[in-house]
């Protein structure tokens, strides 16, 4: 799967969070990786000052590390989530 650095692709990634039991928040922060995941509270916080590319990379990384209940996702979002989980990151 190839990452697309476009607003519609960012929206697709955000939709996965919206349908899951994780909460996605954009806030200013001093995160070394650009994001913070509070797994017990199911909250993901991304630096709101990141560029479009930075936000997409953060959401991609977060989705690779968290476990989302796939039964909550629509078929389209479930397929995207599975593609992300199966992808080997080469960067």
Largest sheet: 3 strands, mixed
Low-pLDDT residue intervals, each spanning 5 or more residues: none
Q: How many beta-strand segments?
A: 3
Please indicate the percent range of residues in DSSP E strands (runs of 2 or more): 15-25%
Number of domains: 1
**End-to-end separation:** 13 Å
Describe this structure in words.
With 91 residues, the protein is an alpha+beta fold. The chain has one domain (7-86). 43% of the residues lie in helices and 15% in strands. It has helices spanning 7-19, 52-65, 75-86; strands at 23-27, 35-38, 43-47. Strands 1-3-2 form a three-stranded mixed beta sheet. A hairpin with a 4-residue loop joins strand 2 and strand 3 (43-47). The mean pLDDT is 91.
Topology readout:
Blueprint: H1 7-19, E1 23-27, E2 35-38, E3 43-47, H2 52-65, H3 75-86
Parallel strand pairs: 1-3
Antiparallel strand pairs: 2-3
Helix pairs in contact: 1-2, 1-3, 2-3
Compact overview of the structure:
This protein is α+β, with helices and mostly antiparallel strands. It is built from three helices and three strands, in the order αβββαα.
Question: What are its keywords?
Answer:
alpha+beta; 3-stranded mixed sheet; 15% strand; globular
